Amino acid sequence: MVERVENFDWFLFIEDDIVLYDAFIIEKLESFNVQSGYEKAILYPNRFEMYEGTKRYIDLTIDPRLSWNQLSSVEIETVKFAEYSNPHSGFYCLSRKQMKQWIKSGRIFKNQVVNVGPLESAATFCIWECFSIYKPHQSNLNYFEVRHYDSKYSKLYPEPELPYTLSAVIGDNLGSCHQCQVR
Q1: What is the pTM of this model?
Q2: Looking at the domain assignment, is residue 172 inside a domain?
Q3: Considering the domain boundaries, does residue 138 fall inside one?
Q4: What CA–CA distance (Å, rounded) separates 10 from 137?
Q5: Are strands 18-19 and 145-148 parallel, antiparallel or unpaired?
Q6: Mean pLDDT on 157-163
Q7: In the chain, how many domains are there?
Q8: Does residue 174 fall inside a structural domain?
Q9: Which of 90, 93, 118, 159 has its CA at a distance of 20 to 30 angstroms from the CA of residue 124?
Q10: Residue 159 lies in a domain
């Protein structure tokens, strides 16, 4: 990617078990990059699994000590974004400008387990050292999301059920959350 930084507008990292459904990913990333007001901010999606008829935001259930409002947040066109304690999502996409910033920073993976496990740390840590990673806030979880095509984390971390487990069979199919309404 370093050798081809001038040839492409976007640079994508995606794990082999991540499914993209959102046709507006690039538009959402571009909007966040332009409107966030912070040059070193990047947007990651929330990652979910489907398990036993529910949509489970797995990165929000792995660590019960999650912090949403203790870290910085930003609101863009009524959509709220926040940093929190587990930024991994198996996916990121850097613009050419962000890729150049990352290259210039000299950040590389230092073989440290920082977040969940070694694979998650390798995929996220060197980006996290250089940028502030934001995801859609719990009030609008599904604004930008990717699906983990497995249910292993839902099986490993069955609790807490709420507020990050959404029924897939609710009549309006918007889902609902114990503490927030997801649209």
Answers
A1: 0.81
A2: no
A3: yes
A4: 24
A5: antiparallel
A6: 60
A7: 1
A8: no
A9: 159
A10: yes
